[in-house]
Amino acid sequence: MLLSLAALYLIWGSTYLAVSIALETLPPFLLAGVRFVTAGALLYGVLRLRGVPRPTLRQWGAAARVGVLLLVFGNGLVVVSQQWVSSGVAAVVVSTMPLWLALFTTVRVGRGEGAPAGAPEVSRGEWLGLLVGFAGAALLHLGGDLHAAHAGALLVVLAPVAWALGSLYSRTLPLPAGSMAVAAEMLAGGAVMLGISALAGERLAAPPSARSLLALGYLTVFGSIVALSAYTFLLRSTRPAIATSYAYVNPIVAIALGILLGGERASATTWAAAAVIGAGVILISRSR
């Protein structure tokens, strides 16, 4: 479990800078679609060679639903928004995901939908964590770090909402066992993004640079196959609070790498928002 957590903390924290580099010469949906279709195909092929059974039609349907939420909306919107916002700001916004997950879980438990018998009511600490975390998100917006020249930058705000919904439903839908679920989700989500890319008329203005291709390779192997497999394992084997704890480490990694390697700048508001959101996530984690 510790290796899985380390993978999420370090790898996913670095993917924001990798996306920024890849976007230098690759359009967003083409980038994301190629990334996940390639990663999904590689993982699917390896698993089939190992004798893992192919998903049933019902399992493909479940994987497609989760893949669209996690990858098309949860990841794709981040990639699109990073055309206008820095990798650090994107990471801070995405770090609100555990807050949304806690909120959606609370609503679901309250309605008795898929909640275990005798599920506890939401504690004061959890409500406090939600309020603190969303206050941090509001600080980021009001401080101007999300005010960009293009309204598309605000799409990043929707990404953690979709990722939280996908994470929640992945625990109850009839997905394939083990890593085959990851492969199916990536294939389905990647195919949808390639379709969106074609419909949007995305084209390569010039051959991709070596930097962009290296970043794409890193995102495919480490950001997709390794990290997403680790996340799926944690979702199914431990509490959501632990599985989503990467959210208050990733922004620090992303901001630091953006400054050191990407030539980005992080305002005091960005650092403050990251700290406040992280405090909210920690409050929720310790209250569960």
UniProtKB/TrEMBL annotation:
<dbReference type="InterPro" id="IPR037185">
    <property type="entry name" value="EmrE-like"/>
</dbReference>
<feature type="domain" description="EamA">
    <location>
        <begin position="5"/>
        <end position="140"/>
    </location>
</feature>
<feature type="transmembrane region" description="Helical">
    <location>
        <begin position="148"/>
        <end position="169"/>
    </location>
</feature>
<dbReference type="InterPro" id="IPR000620">
    <property type="entry name" value="EamA_dom"/>
</dbReference>
<feature type="domain" description="EamA">
    <location>
        <begin position="151"/>
        <end position="285"/>
    </location>
</feature>
<feature type="transmembrane region" description="Helical">
    <location>
        <begin position="246"/>
        <end position="262"/>
    </location>
</feature>
<keyword id="KW-1133">Transmembrane helix</keyword>
<feature type="transmembrane region" description="Helical">
    <location>
        <begin position="125"/>
        <end position="142"/>
    </location>
</feature>
<keyword id="KW-0472">Membrane</keyword>
<feature type="transmembrane region" description="Helical">
    <location>
        <begin position="268"/>
        <end position="285"/>
    </location>
</feature>
<feature type="transmembrane region" description="Helical">
    <location>
        <begin position="213"/>
        <end position="234"/>
    </location>
</feature>
<feature type="transmembrane region" description="Helical">
    <location>
        <begin position="84"/>
        <end position="104"/>
    </location>
</feature>
<comment type="similarity">
    <text>Belongs to the EamA transporter family.</text>
</comment>
<protein>
    <recommendedName>
        <fullName>EamA domain-containing protein</fullName>
    </recommendedName>
</protein>
<feature type="transmembrane region" description="Helical">
    <location>
        <begin position="59"/>
        <end position="78"/>
    </location>
</feature>
<dbReference type="GO" id="GO:0016020">
    <property type="term" value="C:membrane"/>
</dbReference>
<keyword id="KW-0812">Transmembrane</keyword>
<feature type="transmembrane region" description="Helical">
    <location>
        <begin position="181"/>
        <end position="201"/>
    </location>
</feature>
<feature type="transmembrane region" description="Helical">
    <location>
        <begin position="27"/>
        <end position="47"/>
    </location>
</feature>
<dbReference type="InterPro" id="IPR050638">
    <property type="entry name" value="AA-Vitamin_Transporters"/>
</dbReference>
<dbReference type="Pfam" id="PF00892">
    <property type="entry name" value="EamA"/>
</dbReference>
